[in-house]
Amino acid sequence: MVTTQSDSVLHGSPYRADCPTRHILDRIGDRWTVLVVGALWDGSARFSELRRRIEGVSQKMLTQTLRGLERDGLVRRTVHPQVPVRVEYTLTEAGRTLRAPLRALEEWSIAHLGDVTASQEAYDRAD
Prior knowledge:
Blueprint: H1 5-11, H2 21-28, H3 31-40, E1 45-46, H4 47-53, H5 59-71, E2 75-80, E3 86-91, H6 93-97, H7 99-111, H8 113-126
Antiparallel strand pairs: 1-3, 2-3
């Protein structure tokens, strides 16, 4: 059987420049995505709650991240028609499946913080 370029794109090959999986990797590998998914793990949250939980995120970056996650089907935005309007964000089923791999990255970064910091300092001293 001959595999065409479009076949490999449909089946996912992130090492190919034209593969859509690269967009997905960009999304889930983003620092703010990791933190938003973590902040939504326990349930729904309003925008202001997310800003408080995720120190250092700007309003613009949080908005962009939430819109991207919503577009990709990883976060659901629910508008409650009341005065004032209440908007909540929740992980979708697909978004919840990201929690385990992203949690592993969180745990790895915490466990290896000292080693990475020591390596950075040694590297910087060598320059």
